Amino acid sequence: MTKSGHAEGYETLEVLINGRWRPGSSRHSEPVMNPATGEVLGHVPHVTGDDLDEALDASAQGFRAWSVRSALDRQSVLQAAAALMAERRDAIAKVLTLEMGKPLVEAGMEIDFAIATTRWYGEEGRRACGRLIPSRTPNTRHSVLKEPVGPAVAFVAWNFPATNVIRKVAGALAAGCSIIIKPSEETPGTCVAIARCFQDAGLPDGALNVVFGVPDTISRHLLASPIPKKVSFTGGVAVGKHLTRLAADTMKRCTMELGGHAPVIVAADCDLPSAVEACLAAKFRNAGQVCTSPTRFLVAKEIYTEFTNAFAEQASSLRVGNGLDETTQTGPLIAGRRIDWMEQLVEDAEANGARLITGGHRIDDVGSFFEPTVLCDITPDALAMTEEPFGPLALMVPVDTLDAALEEANRLPVGLAAYAFTTSQATVLRIQSDLNAGVVGINQTAVSLPEAPFGGVNETGWGSEGGIEGLETFLRTKFVNELVL
After folding, report:
1. Does residue 2 form part of some domain?
2. Model pTM?
3. What would the pLDDT profile of 163-183 be if each residue is shown by its tens digit?
4. Total domain count for the chain?
5. What positions carry a catalytic annotation?
6. Residue 191 shares a structural domain with residue 280
7. Which residues contact 113 (CB under 8 A, 6 or more apart)?
């Protein structure tokens, strides 16, 4: 540990309120653990109600200062922040790997995404244009204006400590909003490091505030206030519904990016080696702790055995280990509770007739490691087929027809990501129109880009992040009907 009480290479954990970094006023803090080693990386400070009130007042003042800045000025700050992130890329990536566990290569790619998203939002903020409507009468002008909605609050999950944060922070700031963000207490360092880049880039005091503490206490306090006009959340369905209810009391605008359970339709005419390669990489990225992770593999019966055997063989050869080790291909789960959940899902699946063909067990006693796991012939009765595994479990299901595949793909109430592998354009058109999902990958699994909307349908939430749609969520519309004298 360093003299400041954090592990070597890890971020000093503080809260940011009204432009000042400091400890929280609460006497309480909690340890941040390295999931690969069990090492305590540092202690995240908790805030008090008074701290939150100060952050709310600061966000109101920050909004007044930031919203009147020109779009060009706001872009310059976001571009400067992106440049600082690029300079500090390797250091921030190491912080991310230490607290979240994913391989350092993946962490670096995530920081690259944060940099690209910040730059894109900075540019797009200059194009938050209104319009003129042709008037009905002489000497009348009908104007539609786009304005920042107001101060925003955001709450994010631990699995993508940079991506989840930057989609909210960069989107809000590009639109001219201030924002209070509460990252996960399990992965706080990445957000702190990113926020330092924005502060060092010249962001006005109060435009960005970072707080930590008991999640429900903080959300209730912030959402009860009339100051925030917008709430954005990335996390589980149950919590998203809870936050939506809290936001309803003050009619805050909501963006909810919630859970998924992504189906993968593997047609008999697919390029099988390419499909296996793409699915394997996506499934075990971040140890499966990805809301878009391919999970239910609905494989045409004609190629079911060949596909599952090839997939399982490659899964069994993946190198699982500490993300700082350059040979690691998939890292640990975030904490021991996730190991318990994996074991429960595997045991339940086998009890319901599934065949375990590789993996299914904890690795070692140190760290939160679990084997890449493939379960075949799994039935809808298995818990894993309904509840999101959020881990390194691939569920294989043989299907007779495309209709059967689509029926299973759309069976659940969530609909974030879905995938399909086929060389038939007729099949592609059918899948595009019939899949209940917000993002769809065809013959590849990349469904998240800074310039494209990202969000789900049904119980996966409301709204999109990224793209012009993501900027729009932080803007309100005003109509002006002017008689020109």
Report:
1. no
2. 0.96
3. 999 999 999 999 999 999 999
4. 2
5. 257, 291
6. no
7. 162, 163, 166, 448, 450
